[in-house]
Amino acid sequence: MGEKSALVSSLSKTSLFEGLNAGDLAALAGRFKEKQCAKGETIFRRGDPGDHLYLVETGRIRLAISTADHRILSVRHATEGGLFGEIAALDGYPRTADASAITRARIHCLDRQAFRDLWANHPEIATRAVEFLCRRLRETTAQLETIVLEPLPVRLARFLLGALGSRTAPPGRRVPLELGFSQSELSKLLGASRPKVNAAIASLEKIGAVGRTLDRLFCDPEKLAQVARHLDEAKWLHQLMTT
Predict the structure, then answer these.
(1) Given CB 3.0 to 4.6 Å as the disulfide criterion, which of 106, 154, 158, 159 pairs with 150?
(2) Alpha carbon 74 to chain centroid distance?
(3) Which of residues 166 and 79 earns the better pLDDT score?
């Protein structure tokens, strides 16, 4: 598959552009510009002009908010096939978060004016954009609610379940999981310090929900789901405190 064909395929799978015909997708792909990002490279900072929409082809991009005392809260990660930078690209206001590559990445950017021209010719994209932003808002609200209200082991269990996706395991078996990023990065996503995340992993180990080696976790989806749903919470808390 050629580079343009691969980009067309990726665009067709996004919630903003799915449903466009092949000709429109090809024309859209022709408006994107490729950018190679080194690990650690900043793509934009909070407050920068919002002049592009981005699509990730390979790699992992962190969207984060930094505090005055240099603490970082990762809002989310954008990975293969994911869009980011859409809010400022839609309304023209400054960026609301920092974006940086936490791995080497290949991304494609679409100029805001080209994006506006696109939805002027395809009104259905404007509807999808509203739905897309509403979904982002709901996801962010749920994330902040979890950080503020839920115990860290519960937040961690929910995150691991999301990372596992539809993967399951036979009773008593665990699923290997490679996150693709460091525990420090995981801490930023969970809104906690690294020592606290390490303690949360240890607490899940105590009840058999996870096991770990130097480079990966082994997850029991059923036990993680039990923690995430607060089933048998009293029994679980008692076990954590007494083992």
Answers:
(1) 154
(2) 9
(3) 79
User: CA-CA distances (angstroms) from residue 10 to 56, 143, 229?
Assistant: 9, 26, 34
DSSP E strands in the chain: the ranges are 33-37, 42-44, 52-58, 61-66, 72-78, 83-84, 98-101, 105-111, 175-177, 210-212, 217-219
pTM of the predicted protein model: 0.73
Backbone angles phi, psi at 175, to 5 degrees: -100, 125
d(CA 191, CA 59): 22
pLDDT at 132 over 90: no
**Looking at residue 103, what is its pLDDT?**
92
pLDDT the model gives residue 45 = 92
How far apart, in whole angstroms, are the C-alpha atoms of residue 98 and residue 81? 19
Domain boundaries, the chain: 3-140, 150-242
Among 67-71, 125-129, 234-238, top mean pLDDT goes to: 125-129
CATH architecture of the domain with range 150-242: Orthogonal Bundle (1.10)
Q: How far apart are alpha carbons 62 and 75 in whole angstroms?
A: 8
234 or 195: which leads in pLDDT: 195
